[in-house]
Amino acid sequence: MKGKISIFLAAAACFFCLQSYADGTRPNLALNKPAVCSSFEKANQYNGNKDSVPGLVTDGDKQTRWSSDYFNDADPNLAWIYVDLGSKVDISEVKIFWEAAMAKVFSIEVSDDAKTWTSISDIKGNFLPQTDVKIDKPVSGRYVRINCKERKTQYGYSIFEIEVY
């Protein structure tokens, strides 16, 4: 009986896994994963008196956000944030949910070691609050970085959520 229960549970798990893909939902590989950034905005009156730390881009809550520390950055146009997916995976899509202080020019990059980065998409002229980048041929990487190069506003960069599929 024990073997039949194990087989049943495995079959049920496969059914639910396949069902989630069949109905168009895929797991967000970045959800609740650690994130690292070049800088973050400390608590102040404009961010609800809470630090805008990098982990807020992977918490699944599109009301919380990371923002760069444009007051103190040597060059406020340059900032980055990356997500550690935990292991090397195939990446076919990256979604970025921006606050109004978005990047007009940025690149999406991948890495296996968080030191050497390869650009998989260069975006110029972005004015969309949601950037959805589909990669024609999936790429592999453990880390996904949003490398911001030019601001849309006079403020720093601010991202509600990064999703990786």
Helical content (DSSP H or I, runs of 4+)? 10-25%
Query: Number of folding domains?
Result: 1
CATH architecture name: Sandwich
Figure out the total of helices. Answer: 1
CATH class: Mainly Beta
Largest sheet: 7 strands, antiparallel
Report the order of strands and helices.
Answer: HEEEEEEE
CATH topology: Jelly Rolls
Contiguous uncertain segments of 5+ residues: 4-20
Radius of gyration, CA atoms, in whole angstroms: 18 Å
Q: Give me the CATH superfamily.
A: Galactose-binding domain-like
Q: Given the C-alpha coordinates, what overall shape results?
A: globular
Briefly note the structural class of the backbone: mainly beta
Quantity of strands, as a count: 7
Determine the mean pLDDT. Answer: 88
